[in-house]
């Protein structure tokens, strides 16, 4: 068995060495395919990873929505079991039409006491138009308690100008996203006008700007104090739109979300549920990219098949002599399959090494996604995992083996008598 394998490999290597130029080109083709696939894996994984990390950094992991869960009923009065007609009066708790949480202080206390919760931040969400001089822009404003909101995300760390503390002691202060501030040309301590949904105009002082890394957030969002947002929305002091929650362990989010919903009676939403459309969009785009990259391997497979067919045509007399000396058909097939495997393995290994260094190079370069990108940053995030290399290498070997199957069958079917007589 070992002698047979040694013979197959020795003949396969001799054939390939006789076609050095073509062999090198084919190996290079497989290598480029492997390199591109590894780079694609790294970039696609990096985009998803970057988006998830930024979502986790700036938004609650769980949000208590201002919507009651399904109504419950309680039996108030029931007729005697001995009566001819069974009559009962029940009270039914109907979900509130208004999307609000009240009294929010009690809900915050309940959630704060749960193990696994490290931050709870009530907020009021409102929309309106912000104006500075002649420039105006619609925006989404979130009224928060700054000290609590700082524990939910990295708002304090994301400050570009001003401080989060200044928002705390400035009742009519507002924090603007860097993109929003740039669009209305407003700067630190400028006086802006905000027109709320109630039609009233509020004079606000810009106490700082922040950059979350999300284009949609930085271009459209702002923060104000909770009490001011309650006034704009016409809420009482014990009413908020929703409550944001941060957990100590990311893996406990789903379990705690269900537990909190049952405890408070309000619907909850995890960060994955809230951003499902965004994440699915990027995952779908990644799948399309992988499909296109696979065609690079298909092209490389045609190159492998071309080299092996050329070898079969040029080595017909050698094949005929080997068959006449007793080399079995199966051994001949294994020789050409081995040649395809050698090309695939060599190309896969070279591509893996090149892909690793190219991915590292791209992640180290000061390249950004651009100002109009969904996610902003000063470099491209990449991810490298062992199974990326394993899948790429196996795909290269499989494509190479399939490409060598046709030439192997052709070589095995050659008739030595006809070839030697020619």
Explain what you see.
The protein is α+β, with helices and mostly antiparallel strands and 422 residues long. The chain folds into 2 domains: 2-56 and 278-421, no CATH class; 73-274, no CATH class. Helices cover 55% and strands 20% of the residues. The strands form 2 sheets. Strands 4-5-10-7-9-8 form a 6-stranded mixed β-barrel, surrounded by 4 helices. Strands 2-3 form a two-stranded antiparallel ribbon. A hairpin with a 5-residue loop joins strand 8 (191-195) and strand 9. Helix 1 (2-17) packs across helix 13 (329-364) and helix 2 (20-58) runs antiparallel to helix 11 (276-314). The longest helix has 39 residues, at 20-58. The two termini are 34 Å apart.
Summarize the structure.
This protein has helices at residues 2-17, 20-58, 104-112, 146-152, 164-169, 178-184, 215-220, 226-233, 253-264, 271-274, 276-314, 316-324, 329-364, 386-413, 416-421, and strands spanning 62-68, 73-78, 88-92, 117-132, 135-144, 159-162, 173-177, 191-195, 201-210, 221-225, 242-247, 266-270.
| Number of structural units classed as domains | 2
Q: Determine the strand fraction and express it as a percent band.
A: 15-25%
| Helix percent band | 40-55%
- CA-CA gap between termini: 34 Å
Question: Helix segment count?
Answer: 15
- Secondary-structure content class: alpha+beta
> What would you call the shape?
elongated
The string of secondary-structure elements, in order, is HHEEEHEEHEHEHEEHEHEHEHHHHHH
**Which regions contain 5 or more consecutive residues with pLDDT less than 50?**
72-76, 91-96
Number of strands: 12
